[in-house]
Write a structure and sequence with these properties.
7 helices, 194 residues, binds zinc ion, mainly alpha
């Protein structure tokens, strides 16, 4: 890895994962019967994510003057767990395909807002993903409950996982964590279904 290109290497590895996630979502939407094959793809994506995106971030953090946020590794671990959970649900089709696509879409946004430049606003793609995450969070807080109880429970779980991945990490001073700390209300509103 060219030392001066580490930010570019990181961005390329992130883009590769984003593209693979889009492919997995499309494959599942087009042919739901391919669920086991998509579960395999998701496990591969989780491995590549860990090796390349998380690995590039770890190497960048070891550099002098690194701007990799201290929340980076924790956020990567949450994303990997969320991917593996979806693969486990999808393989025997223990979840609905629509909901798995929703979960993958949320994970994609979380991968998109990962950055090795925690205190600058130079990555316009990260800024775009940040604003999309904010819109999804407000949609989650104001959506109507689903009529079917089981579907509501599954969707609620996916949304909770998305909110967990979105939270600020204690002690991290990066722009994203700082913004969330300022915005956090004393009692965070949670959708409660009757
Ligand atoms: Zn942070």
């Amino acid at each position: 890895m060219e030392s001066e290109n580490y930010v570019e290497h990181f961005r390329q590895s992130r883009e590769n994962i984003l593209n693979r996630l889009v492919d997995a979502i499309h494959k599942l939407e087009e042919v739901p019967a391919f669920h086991a094959s998509v579960a395999y793809d998701i496990r591969l994506i989780a491995s590549l994510f860990k090796l390349n995106v998380q690995g590039n971030g770890r190497r960048a953090a070891q550099r002098e003057g690194s701007d990799v946020p201290s929340c980076f590794q924790r956020r990567c671990n949450l994303i990997t767990s969320a991917l593996l959970e979806q693969a486990a649900l999808l393989e025997p089709r223990a979840c609905l395909v629509d909901q798995c696509c929703q979960a993958l879409y949320y994970i994609r946004l979380q991968v998109g807002r990962l950055t090795v430049e925690g205190h600058s606003n130079v990555d316009s793609y990260v800024e775009l993903m940040e604003s999309m995450v904010d819109s999804r969070i407000s949609e989650i807080q104001t959506r109507r409950c689903l009529a079917d109880e089981d579907s509501e429970a599954l969707l609620g779980r996916i949304e909770m996982s998305f909110r967990m991945m979105n939270r600020e990490q204690p002690g991290c001073s990066c722009n994203q964590c700082r913004k969330r700390r300022v915005a956090a209300a004393p009692e965070e509103s949670i959708l409660v279904c009757p």
